[in-house]
Amino acid sequence: MNIAPGKNAASTIPFDQARVDRLMEEAGIDVLLATSKHNTQYLLGGYKFIFFAAMDAIGHSRYLPIVVYEKGGPDHAAYIGNRMEGGEHQNNPFWTPTLHAACWGTLDAANLAVEHLRKIGKTGARIGIEPGFLPSDAYTLIRKALPDAKLIDATDMLERMRAIKTDAELEKLRVASELITDSMLATIAWAREGTTKTDIIEQLRREETNRGVHFEYCLLTLGASHNRAASPQAWKQGEVLSIDSGGNYHGYIGDLCRMGILGEPDAELEDLLAEVETVQQAAFSKVKPGTLGGDMISHAEGVLKKSKVAAYTDFFAHGMGLITHEAPFLMTNHPVTYEGTYAAKPLEKNMVLSVETTMLHPTRGFIKLEDTVAVTEAGYVMFGDRGRGWNRGGVL
Asked: Start and end of every Creatinase N-terminal domain (predicted)?
């Protein structure tokens, strides 16, 4: 399917065009070739093709969606997708004036992108690409077909584009967090003495799926162990449980951690979780527009340093949205490998953060809280703000 340009895209463009144009100008980019599923989803206003939601591979190649966007020229925008996406367009038309629903692999998609760039007169332009999400065969084809073009890494520009969430995005992140919290609390209540880690993870998968969340992962510990992988280990009376899960709601990530106990927590466990909560609250206290990201981090780390559990406890915070680690990037290589480029920048309204404090206690086990907060005009709001104490297992 090839729909030629004609309709006025300016009235239907689903993102802040002025902001995206400004970011492109600052990055020295004339036209974008977005090829990651998360950035094409963003630029298409939330659309993601369900057929390739879980796996990209097909035949001898893979699915390669491409959004072509020219700075200041939404009427020249195009979406290049799989042949089956013509049906998606019939039901819910894409905003881009040009649609090529014609591809089965990387090379035909790259060829159509080159063809479109020729049509809009951008063969010698500064073209923003995503190196981490552009297969080598497609890159080689584009490089050879457009020898006069300058290919620029647009990764940082696209991350900055997604850093400030819209109200619709915030709502999806809120719902994702609420549903995952509900699922984790229901799973803890369901599990009982003798229930294995593998069984608990499968139960959580069912709980999230039944609530409309696409299950992505569960990291689980029982007892004194710090091992979070699935296993036949069974929950025993008096042991702690740490359940950390990520799920996807309409493309947006919920990622939280809650604690369970089989029986009643003793005084030591109450005290240990309180230490974790103190660090979390220290971080929350600095979340507001204008605070430097690094100042929030250093304040929480300073509180942790004074704690009696500091020797085996870690603090971490990161941005989240369409993917689990995105702008604002607040810490360098801790633990994910990227630069903390937002540490010296102020937090802004509608940024979303995951804040986590993790204790690897030598005898009591893995004790952690992970929370999702959105920066508001007055400070912050938490998503899924329930079950942050000791939740009892085996009560259902």
From this structure: 19-164
